[in-house]
Task: inverse folding
């Protein structure tokens, strides 16, 4: 499209990957102006001369407009605008962009595995760094080692890898239960047989005894029978208890969330990766994944919108000072791919740190944190121009959203935080969303 700077009158021909109407543009003269609105239906990219429409003042990103012919269109939001908005709510501590990070990866085998994004890996690694000694809250994307670590973390907890582990563990536990059951029954049968043989010997001895009266023999046989009955009852109770204990162990594992089931394995494997990366520099690993404890974890559940999900997470009693949360939000569609962020709760006061893998780390108050997450998932990502394309989509549909989260505690002792506890919002029935 053709555009003229309103100050210096310089003419520009701008490439249209999306409708530019309502978005800011900075001329070489330093003037930043909002490109006037135009209808992308009436004036498609093939038409360089646009018919501009009345344009209100202020930020228009994410707002919907209609042209005189009734065509509706929404103004795109630029990444720079998201940075500006997040920064206006708090303090930016460092930028991060997973798309640039993926582009900078040097490992030809690792790079294709994370082409769709590595937000979950980045979030879990950020939590490890934030909750460890000498906390680190920002990344240096020039350091390839950091990107390699983040990308590897993504592959270690990818859906297919995690599901394979869960399936294998379930098979092992089922096999173990079968072994316990078979062994318990075999031992029970043997002990019952031995008890019967022992009792029959008593009966035979009593039967052939010449120094016992009939009444004495009957009493002795009754006693032997009672002892046998008690022995059988005890043997079967012990058998059933052994089988029940094995079943209870399996059921307890089944009741755990996916994060709780998989965390120890993920942490061990990632600690090995950290040690290998650190061995090149000779430095010890100070912040290990295995130093983190999962305090609370919720598998994918349907919530009544992003606001309800955020309120539920922030009101969790376990989300106290010196804790961090992994939060993943998905569109309420089976098989849809979501996006993850991390939230660190400060030791004192109501301050939080939000790590957003496409934008970086921001220090925010409780209310601004809530506002930022709602903005990202209901306004920015559904209308974002550029960035990581896989994240640019609506997340809240018809007032519903899928969400899952895990709250971690580090090795440092938490300090009570006086921030107000928010009232939880009601969530609907749990959904087994992939």
Result:
């Amino acid at each position: 499209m053709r555009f003229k700077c309103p100050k210096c009158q310089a003419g520009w021909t701008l490439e249209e990957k999306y409708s530019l109407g309502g978005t800011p543009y900075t001329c070489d003269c330093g003037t930043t102006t909002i490109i006037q609105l135009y209808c992308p239906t009436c004036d498609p990219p093939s038409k360089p001369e646009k018919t501009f429409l009345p344009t209100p003042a202020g930020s228009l990103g994410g707002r919907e407009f209609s042209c005189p012919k009734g065509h509706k269109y929404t103004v795109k939001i630029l990444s720079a605008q998201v940075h500006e908005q997040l920064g206006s709510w708090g303090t930016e501590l460092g930028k991060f962009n997973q798309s640039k990070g993926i582009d900078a990866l040097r490992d030809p085998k690792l790079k294709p595995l994370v082409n769709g994004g590595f937000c979950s890996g980045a979030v879990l690694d950020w939590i490890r760094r934030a909750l460890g000694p000498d906390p680190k809250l920002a990344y240096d994307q020039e350091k390839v080692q950091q990107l390699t670590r983040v990308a590897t973390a993504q592959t270690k907890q990818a859906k297919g890898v995690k599901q394979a582990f869960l399936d294998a563990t379930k098979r092992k536990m089922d096999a173990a239960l079968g072994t316990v059951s078979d062994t318990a029954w075999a031992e029970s049968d043997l002990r019952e047989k031995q008890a019967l043989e022992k009792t029959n010997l008593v009966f035979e001895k009593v039967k052939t005894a010449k120094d016992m009266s009939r009444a004495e023999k009957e009493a002795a046989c009754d006693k032997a029978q009672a002892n046998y009955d008690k022995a059988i009852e005890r043997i079967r109770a012990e058998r059933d208890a052994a089988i029940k204990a094995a079943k209870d162990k399996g059921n307890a594992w089944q009741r755990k969330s996916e994060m709780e089931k998989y965390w120890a394995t993920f942490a061990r494997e990632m600690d090995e990766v950290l040690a290998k990366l650190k061995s090149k520099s000779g430095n010890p690993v100070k912040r290990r994944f295995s130093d983190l404890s999962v305090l609370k974890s919720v598998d994918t559940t349907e919530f009544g919108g992003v606001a309800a999900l955020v309120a539920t997470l922030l009101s969790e009693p376990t989300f106290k000072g010196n804790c961090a949360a992994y939060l993943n939000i998905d569109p309420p569609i089976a098989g849809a791919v979501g996006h993850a962020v991390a939230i660190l709760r400060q030791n004192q006061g109501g301050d939080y740190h939000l790590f957003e893998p496409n934008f970086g780390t921001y220090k925010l108050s409780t209310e601004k944190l809530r506002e930022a997450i709602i903005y990202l998932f209901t306004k920015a990502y559904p209308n974002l121009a550029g960035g990581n394309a896989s994240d640019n989509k609506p997340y809240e549909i018809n007032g519903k959203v899928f969400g899952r989260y895990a709250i971690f505690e580090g090795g440092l002792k938490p300090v009570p935080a006086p921030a107000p506890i928010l009232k939880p919002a009601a969530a609907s029935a749990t959904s087994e969303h992939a």
Notes: Residues 159-208 form the longest helix (50 residues). The longest strand covers residues 293-303.
